[in-house]
Amino acid sequence: MAFSFSSLTNLFSHEAKSVLGVDIGTSTIKVVQLRRDRGRVILETYGAIALGPYAGVEIGRATSLPAERLAEALKDVIHEANVTTNDAAVSIPYASSLISIIKLPNTVEKQLAQVVPIEARKYIPVPINEVLLDWFVISGGKGSGTQSDKLEVLLVAIHNDTIAKFRTIASDATLDVSFFEIEVFSAVRAALDHGLAPVAVVDMGAATTKFYVVERGLIHESHIINHGSQDLTLATSRALNITVAQAEERKRKIGLNPQVDPSLVQSLSLSLGPLLSEISRTAVAYEQRTNQTLSAMVMTGGGAALKGFKEFAQTKIQNEVRLADPFGKTQAPAFLESILKEAGPEFAVAVGLALRRLQEIG
Ligand SMILES: Nc1ncnc2c1ncn2[C@@H]1O[C@H](COP(=O)(O)OP(=O)(O)OP(=O)(O)O)[C@@H](O)[C@H]1O
Ligand SMILES: [Mg+2]
Question: How far apart are CA 358 and CA 213, in angstroms?
């Protein structure tokens, strides 16, 4: 067994460092504070704050707020959740990033640092010096186990202005940011265990739903669908002739429970059904194109916290539907177990960020 000095000091240290994952979504900011203790990951605190009230709209709706308002909300949730660390990692929205897969001859594997930025110009609609560029070889590379004369490279770009905005928000909230990560990677880290077979991770947010395919631990595809959980609320408000705030409250409290409220179930299903069918079509298209079966569809995001969601989704989707259980990767008091299972999907991105930060500080 290899033992490094730093792991020895951690083993005997009584003051293990706490870290904070910060997910600034369009409708809700989520924070999760973790600490490592003798190899275990301890959940110290977590919290969420709706952005609607900061933008003059209802809870649960997507917003588009300037940095100052987002910082204000972030400070509020940090305070409400009793966060005690400023060692943070922050997600960048998928919609603010550009992710594509490029194919290159495998002879350039050693020169990717020169080749990728040149090649990226074909895929990125703004000047290359305005973006932060990153890439990962997903197949065809040495040690990838796949035989091909082509390298498949996942290209990731984030506009400098986006990073600057998130930097401002974090520093206004007096956080020390160790890294920014596009939410795809954080969500996948928190939602999946190690596995080889392709799996879909679906993040159902307020205005949009994101669909990722992961194979051998790497992202192979990503799509955005322009429907999300706020559509269920808006449809319910119209169908039942109640305010948006009332519809949101009923959606969260009762959900898809026909014994309690059949008309609510009907209006929720009428907008959730087509969204799930679109997700299903995206999965089937992937399976047909690659001639592989997705072993499961793992659901994340607040939209997947809807009561009865999993059972209803399973009626529309052929692959096995599972709810993400990110807090399952952490230790928490036993009496919180069922609460954490229910809230879990919403916190996947924040947990994933904090887990990576913990790995970094070892
Ligand atoms: N318990 C619940 N039951 C049903 N819906 C819920 C529940 N909790 C949250 N939601 C819904 O989930 C949505 C918010 O999910 P989430 O916090 O994942 O979105 P977001 O991260 O802000 O959005 P995005 O990722 O698109 O930027 C809201 O529309 C809200 O109504
Ligand atoms: Mg989100």
Answer: 25
The structure's pTM equals 0.93
For the chain, list the domains and their CATH numbers.
5-96+161-361 (3.30.420.40), 97-160 (3.30.1490.300)
- Mean pLDDT per block of 10 residues along the chain (362 residues) reads 42 72 98 95 98 98 98 98 98 93 90 92 88 89 69 93 97 97 95 90 98 91 96 98 98 96 97 98 97 97 98 98 98 96 98 97 88
Q: Can you tell me which residue has the tokens 């009907």?
A: 266
Q: How many CB atoms lie within 10 A of CB 122?
A: 8
SS3 category, 342: helix
* C-beta of 206 in contact with ligand 1 (< 6 A): yes
What separation in angstroms does the CA of 121 have from each of 118, 125, 157, 196, 238? 6, 7, 11, 32, 45
- Which ligand has an atom closest to residue 323 CA? 1
Q: What is the number of helices (H) and of strands (E) in the chain? A: 12, 13
Question: How far are the Cα atoms of 78, 166, 297 from residue 191, in angstroms, in the given order?
Answer: 24, 24, 10
Atom number, ligand 1, closest to the C-alpha of residue 59: 31
- Residue 65: closest CA among 25, 125, 37, 33: 25
Report CA(131)–ligand 1 centroid distance (Å).
29
Q: What are the tokens at 104?
A: 């290159």
